[in-house]
Amino acid sequence: MAEESSGSLSRLIAVARDVRRRLLAVAGNRYKLLLVELREERDRLLLTVVMAIVALGLALLALLAASAAIVVLLWPYAPVATLVILAVLYGAAAGIIGLVLVSRQRSARPLAATLDQLAKDRIAITEALS
């Protein structure tokens, strides 16, 4: 009987070691996936910021030139109305762009693959332990 319980104990230890090894392998894979996604998000964010700065700079120059042309053309007819209309148009455009930006940020799901995989892992582990 002692040999039988010793054999069961050694099998149990072997299974526990195998489970530990597999859990460490899964954790290592998830960690690598997280690192890859973090790098991708960092690169995407950096590129987005650089492109946004360049686009804003160019848009500001174009808007300044167009505004100056409009003001020069309409100054003899209605100088104050021209400036007020331009200010209202710019304010409305800024508000719309701000709303679009907020909407996009709320709908973004960073690290989606990592979070999905962790949810699958949690379900698999829960089922395995049940």
Question: How is this fold's topology laid out?
Answer:
Blueprint: H1 2-74, H2 79-107, H3 112-129
Short key terms for the protein model shown above:
130 residues; mainly alpha; rod-shaped
What average pLDDT do the residues reach? 88
Describe the biggest sheet?
A: none
What is the global morphology?
rod-shaped
| Percent of residues in helices | over 70%
Spell the H/E element sequence: HHH
Query: How many helical stretches?
Result: 3
Overall strand count: 0
Alpha-carbon distance between the termini? 30 Å
What percentage of amino acids are in beta strands? under 5%
* Stretches with pLDDT under 50, minimum 5 residues: none
Structural class: mainly alpha
Radius of gyration: 31 Å
What can you see in these coordinates?
The protein is mainly α. It has helices spanning 2-74, 79-107, 112-129. Helix 1 runs antiparallel to helix 2. The mean pLDDT is 88.
Question: In summary, what is this structure?
Answer:
With 130 residues, this protein is mainly α. It contains 3 helices and no strands. 92% of the residues lie in helices and 0% in strands.
